[in-house]
Amino acid sequence: xxxxxxxxxxxxxxxxxxxxxxxxxxxxxxxxxxxxxxxxxxxxxxxxxxxxxxxxxxxxxxxxxxxxxxxxxxxxxxxxxxxxxxxxxxxxxxxxxxxxxxxxxxxxxxxxxxxxxxxxxxxxxxxxxxxxxxxxxxxxxxxxxxxxxxxxxxxxxxxxxxxxxxxxxxxxxxxxx
Length: 177
Fold this sequence. Notes:
Layout: E1 6-15, H1 20-30, E2 35-42, E3 48-57, H2 59-70, E4 75-80, E5 86-97, H3 103-113, E6 116-120, E7 124-131, H4 133-143, E8 148-153, E9 157-160
Antiparallel strand pairs: 1-3, 1-4, 2-3, 5-7, 5-8, 5-9, 6-7
């Protein structure tokens, strides 16, 4: 990959109605761009949903996608998150092989990473962990030798620090890192 390829986080407030997710994901698909992570949820306003899209590419691709999304009637506000001014979180459940001999070691690892054991069976454990994506990646690397049977990640959720909100943004150009 080229040196100018980075991960960008696009935040958007969109109409909370049927078909919006399909139209937006279709924009990416038509251009052959892969969405690395996508989360969508209702907001404090019943009429709006919040989308967080992680896109891997260059600045041209980022600007192109923001401009294309901004043209959609259902996109009310859009911006690119600055990772230094935002809190990033993700939730992961991971099922690990865990016989009686390995359980204590896995529990100790979980404690270090502030993960919780949420299910225990004779031969496996399900662990829950939240944090920034790099923390989750590190946790996976440490428990991988025990044998990951299954794993599910929610995708990244992000909010700006302080009192600034996505609703405050007047235009996206000032907010691209």
